[in-house]
Amino acid sequence: MPRRSFVCRCEDVTLSEVDHAIALGLHEVEELKRYTGLGTGPCQGKECISALVKLLIDKGLADPETVQPFTARPPTEPVTLGALAAGLAPDAGDGS
Amino acid sequence: MSDTDRALSRRGPARCATALRWDRDQLVTAREGDTVSLALLDAGILETSRSAKYRRPRGAYCLRGDCGTCLVRINGLPNRRACLTAVHEGIRIRPQNRLVAGADPSALVDTMLRGGMDHHHFMVRPRVVNQLMQGVARNLTGLGTLPDRMPDAPAQHRVLEPDVLIVGAGSAGRAAHAVLTDGGCDVVWVDRRDRDGIVAEANAAVSDALLDHTGVFGVYVAEGLWAAMRDTPGQPAVLYSIKPRHVVVATGARDPILAVPNNDRPGVVAARGLLQQLRRSDATLAVPAVVIGEGAYATALADALGVEALPPADVDRIEGNPVDAVSLRDGKGKRECQLVALAPLPAPAYELARQAGAAVRWHGGGFSVQRDQRGRCATTAFTVWAAGDVTGYMGPQSAADDGERVAAAVLHSLR
Ligand code: FES
Ligand code: FES
Question: What atom of ligand 2 comes closest to residue B83's alpha carbon?
C-alpha cells in the first residue's frame, strides 16, 4: 500500500492530488472542492477545510486576511430521513 | 482475550464487564460506560471500514463525533458513530463496506491494484465496463447498506420556543447554562454527545435539563428555526423545531487532520479525543503510543497521555496496518508504537454560527467566529451569541469564563 498523505479522509483526497489541481491553476477553495471532491464526504469538510486552507496559505495562494471556507449548509450533523419526515406530519408541533 | 492483550489498563474501581458482538459473532469484552470505539480499540480492533475511493482500511479518528470515519452498523442500523455510542449488553457492531460477510474476497482487489482502487478513474471507459465497475465499487466502499428493518416507532416532532437555546455542553455551554438558569430564563440546552461523555468531561453532575444525543443539524434564518434531531439509541428519534429569541453557540472546536504520510491508517487518532475517551472510561494506555504535533498544546496532550511528542516536520511516515511505528527523517530512527495520536491545534466548529449569519476569519488553526464585544455574532430573527472555543481555541478554563461572561450579557439583554 503506497504512502499517501490525506488532506480529506472522507473522500480520499491526497496532498499530491491537491498539488496536481493547483498545478492546473485551481487555487480557490471552491474550485479545489469541485475538482477533487474534498469536503464532500460524511463530515462535510469539518476535518479537511483547515488542512486545505493552511496549505494554500503556506504556498502563498490564499490571503489569511480574506480567505473564506466553503459554504456550510445543513445538515451539519447527521439526520435521518425519518426524522425529517416527522416535521411534515399534519399533527406536527405539539407545542410541548 | 486475556487482559495482557489489551491496549488499555483500567484503574480505579473496576466498572462492570459487558460484551459486544463484533462482525459476525466475535465476542469482545468491554466495560460499562465505554464507547464502542474505545471498546474496539482496547481489544485491538482498529479497522472498521474501507475508504471511499482507494479502499484503504479505516477506523475511528477524532473520537468525538466530527470526522465520520468510525461509522459502523449498530444493531442493524447503518452509519452510526461508534465514538458517540455507549456499549450495552447484547449490542451488535458490524463493519461497513464489505462485499460479503466472511473472509473478504475483495482482498483480491488489494492484491491486483497495489495503488488502491480509484473509482473516479478506474475503468471509466467503455461505458458498459464503467456501469459494471460502479456496481462493484459501491459495494466495496462508500456508505453502508439500508437498515435491516423499519424503525419500531416513527420519529416524533416537537416545537419549542424558548428564550434561549444553548448549543453545546462543553465548558462554555455548561457555564452559560448555569448563569442563564440562575437568572430564571427559559432555556433549551442540547448536545449531540451522550450524558456519560459530558459528565466525564465536566467531572461533575450535569443538569437533567440537558437534551443529550441531540445534534443541531441546520439553521434556517428565514424561518427563525434551529432544527435538531434527538437520536437516543433504542428510542424513537425526535425532530426538534426550535424557535428561540437568543442562541448561545458553544460548539467548541474540532480536531482537524494533520497531513503526514499514511495519516489514515487504523490506529491514527486525534490526541484530544483519545484523552477524553480514556478519562470517560478511567483507563490509561497499556501499549506504546506517540503524539505528532508541536507547540505547548501538543506537549500538554503528550504529557497527559504519558507519551513522547514528535514534531510533524520530523515525521517521514507512519508505518504498518494497523499502525506499528513512526519513522523519522534524517536518521532520527523510528518509534515503535501501536497508536499514533495527532495533535493539531483545534479548529473552531463555526458551521452553525455561519449558517445563522456570523462572519468567520482565518485564525491560525481554523476559521473562528467573529463577534462584538459583548459576544453577539449575528442578529436576525434571533440574536446569536458565540462563546468559548468556537471564537478561537482557548482551552477549557478560559472557555468556561467566556461562557459565563457571554451568558451574563444575554441575561442583561433579556431584561
Ligand atoms: S475529511 Fe473531507 S469531507 Fe470529511
Ligand atoms: S466521528 Fe467518530 S471517530 Fe470521528
Answer: 2
